[in-house]
Known about the structure:
The structure holds two protein chains of two kinds.
Chain A: H1 4-9, H2 11-15, H3 21-33, H4 35-54, H5 61-77
Chain B: H1 18-26, H2 30-52, H3 55-71, H4 82-104, H5 136-141, H6 146-157, H7 161-172, H8 177-184, H9 188-217
Helix pairs in contact in B: 1-2, 2-3, 2-4, 3-4, 6-9, 7-9
Amino acid sequence: MTTCKDAITLLLDYVDGALPPDVRGRLEAHFGDCSPCEEFLQSYKATPGLCRKALEHSMPDSVANKLSDFLKKELGKAKPG
Amino acid sequence: MRSKPPETSARVSTPPDDSELAQRAQAGELSAFEALVERHRDAVYRLGVRLLGSQADAAEVAQDTFLTAYRKLADYRAEASFSTWLHRIAANFALMRLRQRKVANEVGEGEEVEDGEGEPSFNSRGSLLDDVADWSRSALDLTLDHELRDAIDSAVAKLPKDLKEVFVLRDLEGLSYEDVALATGLSMPAMKSRLHRARLALRAAIDTFYAERDDGAGGRG
């Protein structure tokens, strides 16, 4: 019988679709019977996307200008490999 | 009667893709390389900030990355994704800086959480003990407010460095497992274990955020 602990230990491979069909089947049966684990699964799946959204950074214009100046100076010396 | 102006066919030229620009840069066309820089500098900078937590360090990673990319253009094969190739270079520079920090024993941005913190707890039969709520739909449907953004920023900064590396490269930057394993020197099982632990810690931090917010509003369902 699959426990909550078993299910959560296997979450990464489950989300990646990397589990053998019989193990996947047992996990899905557990999620069907265990609403806390089903909710845990949904929040686990949402975590990377939420973090990506929260940590979006664009290069500030001042940094972009410095980069451009730096490359103009250095690429003049360097030849493409 | 006014005659209609002749129809002109609008010629919309598609901008060249990365492979075409890279090939032109390989042939010595500097403006093609500059176009690639403009196209990818945000992504490279973002990787630096996410991994190093410092805008100054991220700016230097960007300089190192694009200079190296220019010098090694001959190594780029047009069949591969330029973005992935560039990301690998950026990841290596960022990781080198991270390791230099560890060696120099620099003070991090905040206290790192203990490894294992944020992992769920189970009873002796393996049943989940934690009070779980699914905030996934509300979190992704709404525009992130700055409090949640700050909470996530703080949680990622506090991840143990070995978990943070893998999480940033795989889940935030989208590198393949193979590329992450190559960049970090980890075996596939070790890398996946760290990724899973990072996700558990961050899931728990977001859960705590919502629980505290719900408590403020009158309790979790």
